[in-house]
Specification:
This protein has about 130 residues and is an alpha+beta fold. The protein is built from three helices and three strands.
Length: about 130
C-alpha cells in the first residue's frame, strides 16, 4: 500500500477569535459546532441538509488555501461580487507529517459555475500560460 499524506490534515475553527456565534456564518450548524475537523487522506465528503453550512465551510477552506472565493485555480483572481464570509479569517489548516501543500488545484462549486465558465471564456489564453 502506498503511503499518502493529505494536503490538509485538519481544519480548526479558532473559536476564541469568534466574537458572536449568533452572527453569520458562525450561527449555521456546520460552523457553530465546529472545533476540529479531521480530513481523510484520500477523500472527505461534506453531507447534510441545505443551509447547514457545507458550502460556506468548503469555500472558507479554499480561501485559506489561496483559491479565488468564486472558484477556479489559484491563478483566478476575478470577482463578480463580494461573496465570501469572514469564516476564512477564523480557520487554521494543518498538514500531515510531510507538510505537503498542493502546487495545483481547482476550487469549484455549483453555485459559481456560470461565473467560472464566463471567466475562462474571457481570459482563456492568460490562464493557459499558468499551466
Amino acid at each position: 500500500m502506498i503511503e499518502h499524506d493529505p494536503f490538509i490534515d485538519t481544519v480548526t475553527l479558532m473559536r476564541e477569535w469568534v466574537r458572536d456565534f449568533d452572527a453569520y456564518p458562525f450561527c449555521i450548524p456546520a460552523v457553530r459546532n465546529l472545533t476540529t475537523l479531521k480530513l481523510h487522506p484520500r477523500v472527505s465528503f461534506f453531507v447534510g441538509e441545505n443551509g447547514t453550512g457545507k458550502s460556506t465551510l468548503l469555500e472558507a477552506i479554499a480561501i485559506v488555501e489561496g483559491f479565488n472565493p468564486e472558484g477556479g485555480s489559484r491563478a483566478f483572481r476575478f470577482a463578480t461580487r463580494e461573496s465570501h464570509s469572514e469564516l476564512c479569517q477564523k480557520l487554521r489548516l494543518s498538514r500531515g507529517p510531510k507538510g505537503l501543500k498542493g502546487t495545483d488545484g481547482f476550487f469549484f462549486r455549483a453555485e459559481s459555475f456560470f461565473n467560472v465558465a464566463t471567466e475562462i471564456d474571457a481570459n482563456l489564453s492568460a490562464y493557459l500560460k499558468t499551466y
